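A.,

Following up on our hallway conversation. Structure tokens first:
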């Protein structure tokens, strides 16, 4: 006589030994949908905020920069060329944390280390919202902190 445990399905694994569970299949699906056109869209959306934010920092004379490639970007409060960890470590961490808080107050979340990313489902509207939020944060909030 088997126990209820023997007949109950394992909630962590809803697939079979031959077919993975739906959650595993969903994780693999988006990778296969990144076509060259989608990648070009992501790359373009990633380059636009980097160029605009760096122009904003220069215009406002803020010693900061946004660096990255493709869909990924980082914001660093240093005017030193970011070519390694030491340049980032010498940056103004306090100003970055203030910027991060100001962005969160505007509904924009970036990672604690300054990392952000662009997703293929985003459009120019999200990029513009990010730029507008960052511009407001730098002009209104960080001006008082310096």
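Then the amino acids I'd put at each of the 146 positions:
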């Amino acid at each position: 006589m088997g126990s209820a445990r023997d007949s109950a399905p394992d909630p962590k694994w809803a697939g079979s030994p031959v077919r993975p569970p739906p959650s595993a299949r969903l994780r693999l699906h988006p990778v296969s949908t990144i076509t060259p056109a989608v990648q070009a869209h992501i790359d373009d959306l990633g380059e636009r905020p980097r160029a605009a934010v760096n122009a904003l920092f220069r215009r406002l004379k803020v010693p900061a920069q946004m660096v990255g490639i493709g869909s990924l970007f980082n914001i660093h409060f240093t005017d030193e060329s970011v070519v390694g960890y030491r340049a980032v470590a010498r940056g103004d961490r306090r100003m970055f944390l203030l910027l991060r808080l100001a962005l969160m107050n505007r509904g924009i979340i970036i990672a604690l280390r300054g990392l952000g990313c662009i997703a293929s489902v985003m459009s120019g509207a999200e990029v513009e919202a990010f730029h507008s939020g960052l511009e407001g944060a730098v002009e209104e909030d960080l001006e008082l902190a310096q």
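Strands lie at 65-69, 72-76, 115-117. Curious whether your intuition agrees with the design.

B.
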